[in-house]
Hints:
The chain is α/β, with parallel strands linked by helices. It has helices at 3-9, 50-62, 74-82, 99-109, 124-128, 153-163, 175-178, 213-226, 232-242, 245-264, 283-289, 305-314, 344-349, 366-382; strands at 67-71, 90-94, 115-119, 135-141, 166-170, 188-192, 206-210, 269-273, 296-301, 319-320, 330-332, 356-360. The strands form 2 sheets. Strands 1-7-6-5-4-2-3 form a 7-stranded mixed sheet, sandwiched between helices. Strands 8-9-12-11-10 form a 5-stranded mixed sheet, covered by helices on one side. 48% of the residues are buried.
Amino acid sequence: MRFETKAIRLAHTPDPTTNAVISALHLSTTYQFDEVGKNTGYDYGRSINPTRIAMERVLAGLEDGEHCISFSSGMAATDALLSVLVPGDEVVSARNLYGGTIRLFESIYIPRGVKFIYVDGTAPDDFAKVITPRTRMVWLETPTNPQLQIFDIALFSDLAKAKGTSLIVDNTFASPYCQQPLALGADVVLHSTTKYIAGHHDVIGGALITSNAWWNEKMRFFQNTAGAVPGPFDCYQTIRGLKTLAIRMRAHEANAVALARHLEKHPFVKEVLFPGLANHPQHELAKKQMTGFGGMLSFNIRAGSNAVNALAKALRVFHFAESLGGTESLICHPTTMSHAVMTEEDRQRAGITEAMIRVSVGIEHPDDLIEDIDRALAAAQKA
């Protein structure tokens, strides 16, 4: 089956009692045993739930993976991956990451004795120089948040295998529709399903997808033992969102391309960061490893925080809000929002300035988005 068909059909099998086309929402937290030690495979809702299984089945299929393990948030999924680490272990990571990921690394796992090494470059050789026998993971976002850098997943997979470590790829910005890291050699794919997968700014969730039996066993055990599982209704809503992922991503991308090209020509915009633009330094790589450029872009204006505040207040179609990947267009100021947890020095090293604005381009009419951003930029210029 092709992607669009899998997104709709993999989650559903006709109900054996009614032949209902849509799978049921199972809310029960407990299940009856037939006798001592004998049940239908279901015992307790933290451990297993039919609606959650349906969601995991479709997510695994869309990433062409064998296993999906879902969690109550993207950060819970991130924590599950890090749970395998012990004092003295190392993670080699790209410096450009979501601020919440860095906070988890540094506030929770550094005190536990785990070492994180951040690499500024995007070439595998930059990472190879700092990988040691203690390195348990190479950690990437691609595209990155919020700089939209692209990493060559296949080359990093070769590096990880040569060094005897695991490659973790956060695929949240791209979604399974635009990029499939497992096919390029990643060991585990991470998603905040809150974003493009659910797609409507109304569900929090996370997921890990893998075809590696060791990772599946460890993550499934952690999911049940730690218990940060998504509720049945969240899973049901996520399944519903997945059905339109392909058509939403096409609309997100078309709008993002139109907006990025428009912003390139605006005199108050210093720089536009979007892999779909020919002048993006990794445009050709994005074309090679992605089936679409996604709906995320960032740009830098020619002024600081006062101008950003004026821009935010002038918005009428965009929402000035955190998060991303939903039907509504959002504008975020990374310095004070998504990456506020970083120190000023670390933000500067990562290329995040006061003048940077991150855009999650929704599926509204592109002309309305362009008119709104022009109005907001005009207000910013006057600030």
